[in-house]
């Protein structure tokens, strides 16, 4: 599975959009980009995933560049409850293992 | 809607003792996983299972034993606990349906301390 690079931490003002970047320059054609988050002391929570098209669900939007070498997770209106570690994971289409990196600590501040 | 549960949530044991951590899911997912999370290492896969009676090693399997006699249960046993196994353990399950939509759902975790 391709390796991902994320900034170690980011701050965001409450009510503003949080844009979390992820680089995955070695991603191959059959690999998906997944995002999970982990709120303190809880199990990781699935957010969204995509292959090459932009995706949106009730939690977030995922923007994948045309060359697929990077992506951005967007939380449109961040709240204090969105403070968490966000993991960007690249995974093979038929793979089942998730390889977690260090992630990005997002701090939402009032 | 119970989802995925783990028990116990907290456990303190002594070096050399056998400890079993339980994981139960109500979705009939075929895949189940055990991870451990330590400061400085993030989440690491210990073992996983593709179906009942099928298990395979992950990244850090040494010192652990798993079994899967029923689809819904995936216990993790530390046969002789060591201090280095002090960690938070997460169980997860998934069901490979549509291509690329194999999402893992995690339990609340078990915090294990080995004295």
Write the layout of secondary structure elements.
The complex is a heterodimer of chains A (110) and B (115).
Chain A: E1 9-13, E2 18-23, E3 31-38, E4 45-50, E5 55-56, E6 61-64, E7 70-75, E8 84-92, E9 104-109
Parallel strand pairs in A: 1-9
Antiparallel strand pairs in A: 2-7, 3-4, 3-8, 5-6, 6-7, 8-9
Chain B: E1 4-7, E2 10-13, E3 19-25, E4 31-38, E5 42-51, E6 54-57, E7 64-66, E8 76-78, E9 87-94, E10 105-106, E11 110-114
Parallel strand pairs in B: 2-11
Antiparallel strand pairs in B: 1-3, 3-8, 4-5, 4-9, 5-6, 7-8, 9-10, 9-11
Model description:
The complex is a heterodimer of chains A (110) and B (115). Chain A is built from no helices and nine strands. Chain A is an all-beta fold and 110 residues long. In chain A, a hairpin with a 6-residue loop joins strand 3 and strand 4. The model of chain A has no long low-confidence stretch (mean pLDDT 92). With 115 residues, chain B is mainly β. The N and C termini of chain B lie far apart (36 Å). Chains A and B meet through strand 4 of A and strand 4, strand 5, strand 9 and strand 10 of B.
Tell me the number of strands of chain B: 11
What count of helical segments of chain A does DSSP give?
A: 0
Largest protein-protein interface: A-B, 20 and 25 residues
Question: What does the largest sheet of chain B look like?
Answer: 7 strands, mixed
């Amino acid at each position: 599975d391709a390796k991902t690079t994320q900034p170690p931490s980011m701050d965001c003002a409450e009510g503003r959009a949080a844009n979390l970047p992820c680089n995955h320059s070695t991603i191959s054609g059959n690999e998906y980009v997944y995002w999970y988050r982990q709120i303190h002391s809880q199990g990781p929570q699935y957010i969204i995933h995509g292959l090459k098209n932009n995706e949106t669900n009730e939690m977030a939007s995922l923007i994948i560049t045309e060359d697929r070498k990077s992506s951005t997770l967007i939380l449109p209106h961040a709240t204090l409850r969105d403070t968490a570690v966000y993991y960007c994971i690249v995974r093979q289409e038929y793979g089942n293992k998730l390889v977690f990196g260090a992630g990005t600590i997002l701090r939402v501040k009032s | 809607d119970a989802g995925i549960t783990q028990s116990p949530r907290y456990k303190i044991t002594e070096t050399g003792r056998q400890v079993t951590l339980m994981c139960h899911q109500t979705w009939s997912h075929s895949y189940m996983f055990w991870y451990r999370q330590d400061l400085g290492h993030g989440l690491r896969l210990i073992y996983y299972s593709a179906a009942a009676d099928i298990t395979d090693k992950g990244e850090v399997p040494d010192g652990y034993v798993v079994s899967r006699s029923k689809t819904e249960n995936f216990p993790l046993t530390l046969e002789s606990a060591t201090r280095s196994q002090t960690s938070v353990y997460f169980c997860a399950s998934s069901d490979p349906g549509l291509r690329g939509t194999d999402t893992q759902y995690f339990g609340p975790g078990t915090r294990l301390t080995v004295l």
